[in-house]
Specification:
single chain, alpha+beta, OB fold (Dihydrolipoamide Acetyltransferase, E2P), 2 domains, 4-stranded antiparallel beta sheet, 2 helices, rod-shaped
Length: 152
């Protein structure tokens, strides 16, 4: 293999997500490995690795139980996340939150944003009333069906 082609091959493997590559031609063997470091992030007592969520049935049950316990402390209607993503409490970092505890909201009012796949999805209230509890914090990863707000 020519040196120029070898350089191109090394760049291609370096730019890719491959963790191992082997090539053999004319009695010359090339083996390359790209070690990927994984970052462990803990959000709401549930471990998630940077490549994707890794949940056991027990951790999901504990998360659901903690959500039910938090929601059970205040009576009212619960607004749940319609999708998996990152929650934002305000339209931009310098802005005031859409709502806070004690605010009066009407049905259809924007309570926050969940970013999923680079799309910003407005979370609207399904109920009219007073915000009794905000169960998520800004930039928190939320799951589908996770309780986010209690409206009373």
């Amino acid at each position: 293999m020519e040196f120029e082609n070898l350089e191109k091959l090394i760049r291609a493997v370096s730019d890719s997500e491959l963790t191992q590559f082997s090539y053999e031609e004319g009695g010359v063997a090339i083996s390359m490995k790209k070690d990927k470091k994984q970052k462990l992030i803990t959000v709401n007592k549930v471990a998630e690795n940077a490549g994707g969520a890794q949940y056991t049935q027990q951790s999901l049950e504990r998360l659901e139980a903690s959500d039910a316990k938090a929601v059970g402390q205040v009576e009212g209607n619960v607004v749940k996340s319609p999708l998996v993503g990152t929650f934002y409490s305000a339209p931009d970092p310098e802005a005031e939150p859409f709502v806070k505890v004690g605010d009066v909201v009407s049905k259809g009012q924007v309570l926050g944003i969940v970013e999923a796949m680079k799309l910003m999805n407005e979370i609207e209230s399904d109920f009219s009333g007073v915000v009794k509890q905000v169960l998520v914090s800004n930039e928190q990863v939320v799951e589908y069906g996770q309780p986010m707000f209690v409206i009373g």
